[in-house]
Amino acid sequence: MADPKTPLLIKRYASRRLYNTETSDYVTLDDIAGFVRKGRDVQIIDLRTGDDLTRQYLLQIVADHESKGENVLPIEVLTDLVRSYATGIQSVVPQFLAASFDMLREGQTKLVENLHVLPNPLNPATSFEALRQQQEAFLKTMMVGMPAWGGAQAQKPETDVKSEAATQKAADPVTDDLAEIKKQLAELQVKLSKL
C-alpha cells in the first residue's frame, strides 16, 4: 500500500480517462473528490504532455459541487476571485486563501479536541444536576440586563429555597431535575411573554 502522505498519482490518457496508478483502475471525478475528502492529496498528470492538470480537475470538482447547489463559496467571494485575475492582487490572493483555510482547519481541530471536555447528555454517568446548572448559567448570561430575569426565583424567601433543596435531595434526582427544568422553562416563557 502506498504512503498516504505522498500524492496519489493519477494519469490522464488521450481519451481523457483518468487512471489511478496505485490501484491500476480508472477513476471518475467523484472518486477523486472522495480521495481528497479522506485527506489524500492527488496529482493528475497528462500522460502525453506531462502537464500537471491537478488544479484544473480540482476546480472542476468545486464547480460541479457548486452547480449541484452545494454552495460553499458565496457569490461575493467568487466575484472577488474573478476580479483578482484582472488586477495586481492575484499575487496576494493565494497566500490569503491558504492562510484562511489553515486557520479554519486549526479551529476545527481545536473544536474536536475540546469536545471531550463537554458533558455527553447521552452518557448516563453525566449528572443531570450539572446539565441543569449549565443550562441555568447559560440562560442567566443570555438574560443579563433583562428586568424580569430571576423573578420567581429571586423573590423566594431563603427558607423556601432550603426546604425545596432538601425535598429534591430526598426524591428521585432524575425526576426532580426534569421537573425543575420544565418549571424553569415555563417561568422563562412567562417572562418572555411579558417582554
Topology as H/E string?
A: EEEHEHHHHHHH
Mean pLDDT: 74
Q: Count the domains.
A: 3
Number of helices: 8
Shape: elongated
Keywords:
58% helix, 195 residues, 8 helices, alpha+beta, 4-stranded mixed beta sheet, 8% strand, elongated
Task: Give a verbal description of the structure.
It contains eight helices and four strands. It has 195 residues and is α+β, with helices and mostly antiparallel strands. It folds into three domains: 72 residues; 46 residues, no CATH class; 67 residues, no CATH class. The chain is elongated and about 75 Å long.
Helices and strands in order:
Elements: E1 8-12, E2 18-20, E3 25-27, H1 29-37, E4 42-46, H2 54-67, H3 75-86, H4 93-115, H5 128-142, H6 151-155, H7 158-170, H8 173-194
Parallel strand pairs: 1-4
Antiparallel strand pairs: 1-2, 2-3
Helix pairs in contact: 5-8
Q: Care to give the gist of this entry?
A:
Helix 5 (128-142) runs parallel beside helix 8.
